[in-house]
Every structure is written in structure tokens, then in C-alpha cells.
Design a protein that fits this description.
Elements lengths: L1 E4 L5 H11 L5 H9 L7 H15 L4 E6 L2 E11 L4 E9 L8 H15 L4 E4 L6 H9 L17 H7 L1
Parallel strand pairs: 4-5
Antiparallel strand pairs: 1-2, 2-3, 3-4
Helix pairs in contact: 1-3, 2-3
Organism: Gimesia fumaroli
GO molecular function: acyltransferase activity, transferring groups other than amino-acyl groups
Protein name: Putative acetyltransferase
Length: about 160
């Protein structure tokens, strides 16, 4: 596996990898199960937009994993130098490259990137049902700090009245 910097022409491939990889572990997917599509867009569209936001926020913090010059995964990062924290919002691989240690190598690469930036902490989030992520992150020294519950409320008065 080779790790290289992100290039703008990678974006569509990263979005495709992300949508496939986040099935079953996406907050947006859970919202759609409860409320249906929002503004004619499904959870996959919204999750793909997260990758676009990563590319806008800090494109130099996205690292691409390649095998034989084919993109097989990526990790996105951004950092807050004043706070001393590096953030990892997204990481995904194509199915045939999961479980081979590539995610670990990419995470280690991101952590080294944060060290080079002289940051103090790295932060990553996952859902409780993501057993693979939970195991991987703790094996690399991440510690669970707190559990967060996501609440969603409909904003249409008719939706609120129906649910009461």
C-alpha cells in the first residue's frame, strides 16, 4: 500500500468509497430510517457531502491509500493549532481491502502527521455499533472519553403534532 496526498480529482472516488463503507455506521442513515429522506436527498448524498467539506476545510490533511495506483481508501484530517488537537472526521476503504491492516497504517500515518504539526491530542469519533473501529482506535492508544447521544427533532409543526 502506498500513501499519497489528496488531489482534487480524487474526490468522486472518495465519496463512492465513503458511502459504501459507512452503511450501517452512519448517523445520517439512522436519521433516514426514522424520518425518511430530507429535502429529496438520501443519507448517502449527505455523507458524501461530509467528504466534500473535508476537502474544502483542509485538503492537505487528506491522505490517499493506493494499491497498484488504484485508490483503495483514505483518511481525512484537520487540525486546530491553537487548541493543539488534530481531528479525524472520516476514514474508509473498499471492501476487499478491509481487515488487512491498511486502516491501521493510514491511522498511524495521520497520527505522525499530527505529531509533525506539534499537536497534543488526536480525536476520532465512531458509533457504538462500529466494533472494528472501536477495536482499532483503542489499540492505537485512543481512549473513550464520553458517549454522545444524537437527538433529532422534526421542525414541521404537523410532524410534531403527529408524534405527540
Amino acid at each position: 500500500m502506498k500513501i499519497r496526498p489528496y488531489q482534487p480529482q480524487d474526490l468522486n472516488t472518495l465519496k463512492e468509497i465513503t458511502v459504501e463503507a459507512f452503511q450501517g455506521v452512519s448517523i445520517d442513515e439512522g436519521i433516514e430510517r426514522e424520518f425518511g429522506t430530507i429535502n429529496h436527498h438520501d443519507w448517502k448524498w449527505r455523507k458524501a457531502r461530509h467528504v466534500e467539506a473535508d476537502a474544502i476545510r483542509e485538503p492537505e490533511g487528506i491522505f490517499i491509500a493506493e494499491v497498484e495506483e488504484k485508490i483503495v481508501g483514505y483518511i481525512s484530517t484537520w487540525h486546530d493549532p491553537e487548541a493543539g488537537i488534530g481531528y479525524i472526521p472520516n476514514m474508509a476503504f473498499i471492501p476487499e481491502c478491509r481487515g488487512q491492516g491498511m486502516g491501521r497504517k493510514l491511522l498511524e500515518y495521520a497520527l505522525d502527521h499530527f505529531r509533525q504539526l506539534k499537536l497534543s491530542l488526536a480525536k476520532i469519533e465512531t458509533l457504538e455499533q462500529n466494533a472494528v473501529g472501536n477495536h482499532l482506535y483503542t489499540s492505537l492508544g485512543f481512549k473513550e472519553i464520553v458517549k454522545q447521544v444524537h437527538f433529532v427533532a422534526p421542525l414541521s409543526p404537523s410532524d410534531t403534532e403527529e408524534s405527540l
